[in-house]
Amino acid sequence: MNNVKFSLLVACIFARLYEYHPEYQTLDSSSFDKFFFDYDQSSDKDVHDHVFDFGEYFEDTVRWLEEEGYIRRYSDLDKFVLTSNFLEKLNLVSDSTDEEQTIGQKLINAIKDNSFDFAIRLATSLI
Q1: Number of other residues whose CB lies within 10 A of the CB of residue 91
Q2: What value does the mean pLDDT of the chain take?
Q3: Is the pLDDT of residue 93 over 70?
Q4: What are phi and psi of 75, to 5 degrees?
Q5: 6-37: buried (b, 16+ CB within 10 Å) or exposed (e) per residue?
Q6: Residue pLDDT, tens place only, 38-81
Q7: pLDDT for residue 85
Q8: Side-chain half-sphere of 1: how many Cα atoms within 13 Å?
Q9: Is 66 exposed, middle or buried (0-12, 13-18, 19+ CB in 10 A)?
Q10: By CB count within 10 A, which of 22, 30, 67, 107 is most buried?
Q11: Of the candidates 50, 34, 54, the residue with the CA atom closest to the CA atom of residue 42
């Protein structure tokens, strides 16, 4: 279950940063908690455990993404942007479909359409 939580959160963060690139975006847990609730409502999986400390998990995930080079922090603020190396990966067009959408655009659309299982699979393949 922890991998599902992690992948869903990573998918949401990547989608937000890709959609607004190159603007630095504030990342705070209150902006992303809703996706866990929505995912609970749309599936039989229970990712929103009420004992679960989402704020702490969120901070740990953002820190890991930063340390691994996926995102970059602006100064001491909680504003982030995708790194150029990872942005290149999200800008790729998948060879497996006829669509001209980038991987990043597919991720944005999956989150907006509440296609969380697809978003989770995409995020898992990216990290």
Answers
A1: 14
A2: 85
A3: yes
A4: 50, -135
A5: bbbbbbbbbbbbbeeeeebbebebeebbebbe
A6: 666 555 555 545 556 778 889 999 999 999 999 999 987 789 99
A7: 94
A8: 10
A9: middle
A10: 107
A11: 34
Average pLDDT over residues 73-92: 91
Specify the DSSP element, H or E, that contains 89. helix 84-90
Q: Which amino acid is at 72?
A: R
Count of all residues that appear for the chain in the document: 127
Contact 35/27 with Cβ under 8 angstroms? no
Say how far apart CA 96 and CA 91 lie, in whole Å.
Answer: 15
**What is the DSSP secondary structure assignment for residue 80, as one 8-state letter?**
E
Q: Encoding tokens for residue 20?
A: 């607004």
44 versus 28: which is more confidently predicted? 28
- Encode pLDDT of 97-111 as tens digits: 556 889 999 999 999
Start-to-end CA distance of the chain, whole Å, equals 17
Instruction: Give the type of residue at 83.
Output: T
